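Purpose: get a first structural picture of the assembly so the mutagenesis plan has something to point at.
Setup: two entries, given in the order below. No constraints added.
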Amino acid sequence: MQRALSSRGPLVLASLLAVLLALFASGPKFAPVAAAAGGAAPRTLEEYRQFRALSIDILGRFPTRAEIEDFERPGFDREAWVQKHLAGPAYAERLTRIYMDVLRLEVGNAVNVTPAATTLRREQVQGPDGKPIYVYYRRGQRRAREATDGEFCLSKEETGLELPQNQPPRGTPIPVNKAVLDAETTLVRPWWLYRDFLQVSPQLRYGAGWNDADAAFVPGDRLLKEPDGAETVEVRVCKEEAQTRDRGTLHTTGRVPPPPGTPPPHGRLKPLPLDDGYAKTHKGEALSCRDAMAVTSSIDCGCGIGLQYCTPGDGNGDQPNAFALPSRTPLGDSAPLPRTVQSISAWYKHWWSEEVLHFFGRIFEEDRDFREVLTARGTEVNGPLAQFYRATSTARCCSRERAFGMNDEIEPLFDTKVVPPQLFPNETGTWLAVPDRSAHASGLLTMPVFLEKFASRRARAAAVYTAFQCKSFVSTSAELKPSTEPNLMVRPGCAGCHATLEPLAAYFSRIEETSTVYLPESKFPLKNPACKLGKNGKAPGFCDAFYDPAFGDASAGLLRGAYASAEHAKEGPQGLADMVVRSPEFASCAVSRVTASFLGRPLSSDDDALVQSLTGTFTKAGYRMRPLVLALVRSDAYRKANNLRSGTPRQLPTEPAVPDDAVHGGTK
Amino acid sequence: MRALAAAAFVYTTLVACGPPSVVHPESAPALSAASRVAMDTAPKEDLRLVPPEVYMRSYLQWFGGLAPADVQKRAKGADGNQLFDTWDDYLSALGFPDYRNDLPRAQQTNAIMVATFERLAIALCDRAVDHDLKSLPVTPMAERAVFAFENQDPMTEAAFAPRFDVLHRTFLGYPATLAPGPVSRSHVYYGLFSEVVTARQKSKAKARFTPTEAAWAAVCYGLARHPETHLY
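Result (structure tokens, whole complex):
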């Protein structure tokens, strides 16, 4: 309409009329905004800014226009608003972020989680009809047939291929005889394809009947397609891997080592596997199919019904891809970035981080005692974590430990018996509480993400010391003299830090470095006569990983890391947690971290009074964060946390800062 | 002449070998006070940088509450304008920490971060013009996360002010009338708006936006990357 009037010529009156009409036409649509603007008068700029700051700090986002309108209403109750929002996930995320920034609990690429016993790799061979097919298998799987024992279940003669690990196949494929294929492999409807994989005849296939899969459960496309691009309806698995029993028997062959230089038989790439000492002495004994040794010591243990104890990979490499994961989750798992297919290791490591985020979130959302972050024995797990704790974690143990009689984890940090049985590996969105992980569980200190992120005893101790006591190790002496002193608590140049660090590190003596395996007293005594030093000053070779010859003697070896404090080694991470939460620094450190984060600056001695006051509030409230944050956002320090602004009137002192006589004296 | 030279020699010798001359210190006279100014002893703190999580969450909100992947898709668009790359390209620049690689969060702005704010602002505002002002059928007012008003052409300063206030509240969180400064912020931005309209009207280049749409986009850029948006 306005354009039509304008086009008739330069008639000022008509144009003005058109503008007025246009304003009239758009007037009612402005009603809410106009009302908001009209109601804004009583609020000052500082009040708006403080409300925005509260929204940023507590809601985790800028206030919406509607929220600003609510704020402008005369009856707006700031206190009630704060109380209401100190309970939501955004508030919990805000506090979690403080500790994630300190601890950085995501594990990098150096850590792999592909134990042979639970990792299904696959090879592409030619089916009986000449079409390529995939066959899944586990590395090192023991088989009755000599030609394939410890290797892929189809031999070179049967496939025409040599299948070296982590390399493309060599040779010209030939169709596998149908009888051989049927005899050596089994068709399975696995957990990553079927929601109802436990049924005798699963029907609910991913994307075809199972259409409500959890959003975070996205199998890689290559797991869903056959080599010719057709949709995978069932997977072909070597028959040993497809077995479903829980217990098997120790398999022995009685083979003797071949003469040196003898090539492996049957076109194998590796020599035939031999019986180890343990197998010889325990021949025919029963073993759990969930033990790591089951894959290499039995021929009757597999991946369970629907392959539920194993994780599939889309190739034969060390790190085959499996599921699609967000490249990053800067706003948490509920708002992921676009997904890409990533490795099995990445899959588990992702859920390790999610576990600790849920752990923090629960403490903050439910306003639980913050000391639980170090002391709680419970956690929450979802399907992938349940699968990890049920099978993958235990499968990462034991090899070197077998020399000490530990074939599987005896006292795991997460007891497989307490893993919720109703959680399937494909249930990424269901999180269930586990009230008590194990007798050794201790907050985040015994979670895989912490133990793998901080792989050494000293790194673990230093992380706790820094994050929860707000202390750091600063060298008191830069002079490092050459020394053979193994005791770092007294070695010149080292003692300044290590006199404190070593006793703290001793708390982690019973958790293997770069691992989550717990070393029980029954198999790994503090002082082990089996690892005593010989006349040459050395302990037996199998001891080195666990017993430190530098602190051993002619009667026994000493458990690694325990030299600084046998008592701490005995107490374990729980002892450390207890010591830290009882220390006066724990509360003030937590208060300082939260306060610095909300004020957006490092604290100084000028803030001591505030920190002291807030620490009192925090401890009196049973170490709960909500009263602390409430007191903090009520404080003048928070209200004035951003008052360096050119346009903001500055507070002036009521009295002159310089006495009159100083101004007028001297020359007068 | 000789006597004069001898006297000069004696005098020089006496001066050179005599005791050193001493300048005794004395206090300088106090400066007289010209005026008296009260000292500001109130504690002053620097503005805080909005955490990148807050910025990103708000950014998603300005796109109508979409998920990050959907925002990426919409911001990239299908028109080949390359307004947006991927979130992965921006996370570090926005200051997000990378826990996996032990990279801490950025506590201060830097040139790359500011450039990223600008690029994201342009993507947001252009797509918001598409969604809120250009879309057919017309996007209902309740679904307009940025331009929650009707455009009009021409735009008087009086008509501009309440519309600008909508944007000002969206990004800066308070009414434009309260903005500090010697000149009304609405007036300043109306100047920008008018310049863009005029420039676009003179331009013969083919453009996706009408002059007023382009002007609103420019105003939106200015606010979405305004220092007050990114600090608090």
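Chain A touches chain B through 77 residues (CB under 8 Å).
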